[in-house]
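Q: What does the assembled structure look like for these inputs?
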Amino acid sequence: MSAPTTSRPASPAAAGPARGPSRGSLAQRLVASAVLLVAAAAALGPVLVVLAAALGPESPAAGGGLHPENFAAAWEQGRFGEYLQTSALVAVVVVTVATVASVLSGYAFGTMDFRGREVLFLLVLLGIMVPAEAVVVPLFFDLRTLGLTDTIWGIALPQIAQSIAFGTFWMRAHFRTTDRSLMEAARLDGAGPVRILVSVLVPVARPAITTLVLLSFLWTWNDFLVPLVMAPSAQLRTAPLGLALFQGQYTQGTALLAAGAVLVALPVVVVYLLLQRHVIRGMVEGAVRG
Amino acid sequence: MAADRTAEGAVATATAAATGAAAPRRRPLQPHGRATPYLLAAPALLLYGAFLLFPLARAVQYSLYDFDGLTVGTFVGLDNYVAVVADEGLRQAFGHALVLVLFFSVIPVVVGLALAALLTRAPVRGLPAFRTVVFLPQVIAMVVVAVAWRRIYAPDGPLNTALRAVGLDGLARTWLGDFGTALPAVGLIGTWVSTGLATVLLMAGMARVPRELYEASSLDGAGPVRQLVAITLPSVRPEMAVALVLTTITALKTFDLVYVTTGGGPGTSTTVPSYEVYRRAFELGQVGSAAAVGVVLTVLVLLVTVVVTRVVDPSRRDER
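A:
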């Protein structure tokens, strides 16, 4: 689908088809195929269990057959429509702000010399490793003082900071490998730093930026701890939080709970299936570079 | 845009004037104004500093106080840290985290090695689809994963149904509610999540190994096991290090999984440090103690990253 578009070597994870099937004996290939199928089934099993439960009857009285109306019920009664909207809003804010800030800072760290660069970058690296569990406690008390708890910003700002830590690291790594002659040429044409970034570097960095957008979307959408702590009145719920609290309240409604779970997972699964190469490559490369 | 450029122009002019006066010799044009990199990095560094770095420093500060979240705390020095070591409940929580490391990290990496070695050495059709499928658990929210597995482990769930179907009724139980099985049951969910990541990472590493190495060693009479130990394992050290670090960190800071599946129970049999941070800070009002647990957790994560990386993949020592 997407040819290797950057100057970076294509990741082996996204490398082309397996080498010719001539290798290995027939027995070897049969065993490998069997293992492959079992592993795939194990990975898919729990996903199918939830899907089946979501389509099953909410109560024995509802009778057999498929019950797609569970999704409508979860959307309305379970208020998942509301939760998904909150999640979408948080995700848009976090991804937009974090991506713009990361591209700008990655550009500075990756292509410019300045005093304190090394120290500042080490501080950013530290942020990639700090678990949210450590910072969430003081964040709650300080943001409450500022009146930001129970607001979108209370949930978004800590997540923006986390995404920026990875984003700066990721964009710096990308810009460091960008062809210098491109920048030189633009500079000779009289372009300033911002102009060089916007007209020359960003178009070339599109795949790297896409991966960054995807990863920060996945992380933000799936996060649980920050929305749980930062919205104590539970008026403002992101989708995963709504699902967890729904489970606590309605212990009976297996089908509605499962339908809610599917609704929460659906956006990321769709995005993942469409762009899985970017996601896998991003995670693998990001991890290996760290 | 226009405003930006004006500001830069002004800075550039000032810089040029300054350097021009100081250095009469012709020197390469200053590539950018002196303030430019700081201005570019400022939004990121300010947000990062305010909402990650500053709270981290505050966490260290809190951890030195006996603070209930309401009244001004009293300074207690390292007492909260002493309590982490002395408190049996907390020691247990860290012990549980270590058990989870086995399930989240060690088992997936071992299984991933076997899977990846098999699949790379005996190429089969459908590898890209396989990669997509085994990686899927990695992108689904842990809360959704937890809901799915609660269903699987339920008294009338698929697991018990299957056991009864094959006549193993005696084994059927409430997996998440049983003192003996709750922690391994939670751990197995982690195995399910991590195995795909480990496999995909290791497959990427193995794809890099030149075929000729295997062919040459075959000619020398080396069997598959010998090849695995002598060629494959040393070649995938970087990927193995990454897989171990990532999955161990996930295990150490597992919160949502425990919160949704067991809430730390039954009793305290599945409580973990991250859950203790939450419980102490927001349920028990022991904010200072919670902060100390969080700081210890952070130090553990940093240690694991450094130690595992250096032990498993010594080549990295030269970097940076």
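Residues 1-30 of chain B have pLDDT under 50 and may be disordered.
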